[in-house]
Specification:
Elements lengths: L2 H9 L3 E2 L8 E2 L10 E4 L2 E4 L5 E4 L7 E3 L16 E3 L16 E7 L2 E12 L2 E7 L11 E4 L2 E10 L2 E7 L1 H5 L3 H15 L4 E5 L4 E4 L6 E2 L2 E2 L2 E2 L4 H12 L5 E5 L4 E3 L4 H5 L7 E3 L2 E4 L2 E3 L20 E4 L9 E6 L5 E6 L5 E3 L4 H12 L2 E2 L2 E8 L2 H5 L5 H9 L4 E4 L2 E2 L1 E2 L6 E5 L9 E3 L3 E11 H6 L8 E2 H10 L9
Parallel strand pairs: 8-36, 19-25
Antiparallel strand pairs: 1-2, 3-4, 5-6, 5-7, 8-9, 9-35, 10-13, 10-29, 11-12, 11-14, 12-13, 14-15, 15-16, 16-17, 18-28, 19-20, 20-23, 21-24, 22-23, 25-26, 26-27, 29-33, 30-31, 30-35, 32-33, 34-35
Bound molecules: iron/sulfur cluster (SF4).
Iron/sulfur cluster (SF4) binds next to loops.
Length: about 475
């Protein structure tokens, strides 16, 4: 900006926000493009309060907001176990200056330092775990939000479908609309709000962190007890004597009791019932049907369609057959008639009890949202004059990294790549800027001597109570748009 422009702005009461590359020029009483900074009486202010959290043993280590607004704090010495988070702390992008808060405290007689900031993350994404057997779309299929590509379906895990959403390529590599939609979607998911997604060639999803997923309009209730084979193993003994054959229908591994090791162990004779698909090992079959939203994540609505043949030399009339899904939500009981055709029959109570027990052993289906980001070069410079010093300190476990007060998982290998469960973080911990990028809290805590050793900004260390008093005075309620 030219000197002339600077003077004109000053005369007009306009301040320039340098907390991100957008460099908003903000008029008196207005907020910048991200609504995070405002011009109040000619001063640039971070409009949200700094969030302080308190760990409570009785809440099983979960973090609870200590104050909803710094204005509520009466200025007394902070209670024990309180932590200053990066939420509302502000940013010093591009970190040519120290982080907004570098505070000292004493824990168990040890001098500690916590560096607190809001990182601007261009390199970040979310990993979403959806507890469901239902087919949500083929691996690598594009996931859309507001019609824009925002991620893809990735490798399914045990009982869960997985999405990889966001990331720098969607932020920067596509159209402006794609970047903006990606940013909005990530912001909503990370702030525990509801997001609607559509998978190309797959399902419509309604997702919210720590809530049951909704797949094609159906709210998922149960996360399966295991694959078909595992279900056989778990309940074989309880079925023994009440039924001659059990087939647990599963998109991945369908189990057949009499052939399975568990059935053999119990001395169950063969039944001559053979299911479709590719036999892997005894009693374990792959690809018995197509993936879908039917029984056990297959497209099956009538389980008998997966029976390929019944060997008349082995089967006998009256043979008792149970077909059940991996959650116990779908189940059918059959008797073979004189022509060896499975005929629906009333399920005996003893068998029904085991089906119920499958359901009882399922966990509630949830959507889990893990924010993943790299604490990059410029963010590290706000902590230390020697950025690699921070990386080494984190790797050496001398520095603890938290996001909004929640401990993160730090990936092995280079850099500081962290992952955190957003459900454990305080509400509305995230913001965004229109670059586009996500803004998230991050805190680095270490012993004072270790902070010195990594080249920390020692002159910027303040006592935590002093820091909060200054935060209190510079906070204001959000103002109107810019
Ligand atoms: S978008 Fe927000 S952080 Fe970026 S310059 Fe504007 S007000 Fe500041």
């Amino acid at each position: 900006m030219s000197e002339r422009q600077r003077k004109r702005d000053k005369d007009a009461g306009i301040v320039t926000c340098d907390a991100c590359p957008v460099l908003c020029r903000i008029r008196e009483g207005r907020a910048g493009a991200c609504d995070r900074y405002a011009n109040r009486d000619g001063r640039l202010m971070r409009v949200d309060p700094v969030v302080i959290v308190q760990s409570r043993a009785e809440s099983e280590g979960r973090l609870t907001p200590f104050l909803s607004s710094a204005d509520e704090w009466d200025g007394d010495i902070m209670p024990r176990d309180t932590t200053l988070t990066g939420i509302g702390a502000g940013t010093t992008y591009p970190d040519y200056k120290p982080a907004p808060f570098i505070v000292s405290s004493v824990h168990d007689g040890v001098d500690m330092v916590t560096v607190v900031t809001e990182g601007i993350f261009s390199y970040c994404g979310v990993k979403v775990k959806i507890d469901t057997d239902r087919f949500i779309g083929p691996e690598q299929a594009t996931v859309r939000c507001e019609g824009e590509p925002v991620g893809h379906v990735t490798t399914a895990e045990y009982g869960s479908q997985m999405l990889a959403l966001g990331g720098v390529r969607h932020f920067t590599g596509g159209s402006k609309a794609e970047g903006a939609a990606t940013c909005r979607m990530m912001l909503s998911l990370c702030n525990k709000q509801v997001v609607e997604l559509a998978v190309d060639g797959g399902a419509a999803l309604v997702l919210q962190a720590d809530r049951p997923p909704v797949v094609n309009g159906s709210r998922e209730e149960r996360m399966r007890v295991g694959c078909g084979s595992a279900t056989i193993g778990m309940f074989a003994r309880q079925w023994h004597g009440h039924v001659d054959e059990v087939i647990v229908v599963d998109d991945h591994i369908t189990g057949v009791l009499s052939e399975h090791q568990a059935g053999r162990f119990l001395g169950m004779p063969p039944t001559g019932i053979r299911v479709r698909g590719r036999r892997s090992t005894p009693g374990r079959y792959f690809q018995v049907a197509e993936p879908g939203t039917g029984w056990g994540g297959t497209d099956v609505t009538d389980p008998l369609t997966i029976i390929e043949a019944i060997d008349p030399a082995v089967a006998r009339p009256g043979l008792r057959l149970l077909m059940v899904s991996t959650t116990g939500q779908d189940a059918g009981y059959y008797l073979l008639d004189e022509a060896l055709r499975p005929t629906p029959a009333e399920m005996p109570e003893a068998v029904a009890r085991v089906v119920e027990r499958i359901g009882e052993n399922c966990e509630p289906a949830l959507t889990s949202v893990l924010f993943m980001a790299g604490a990059g070069g410029s963010l590290r410079a706000g902590v230390t004059e020697n950025p690699v010093g921070l990386t080494r300190s984190v790797k050496d476990a001398l520095t603890r990294v938290t996001c909004g007060g929640v401990p993160v998982y730090v990936w092995p290998g280079g850099g500081i790549t962290v992952m955190v469960d957003v459900a454990r973080m305080p509400d509305n911990a995230f913001g965004s800027v229109p670059t586009p990028a996500l803004v998230g809290p991050i805190e680095f805590t270490m012993r004072r001597e270790d902070y010195r050793a990594l080249g920390g900004h020692m002159d910027s260390i303040r006592d935590i109570d002093d820091a909060l008093r200054s935060a209190q005075t510079r906070l204001a309620p959000p103002r109107g748009g810019g």
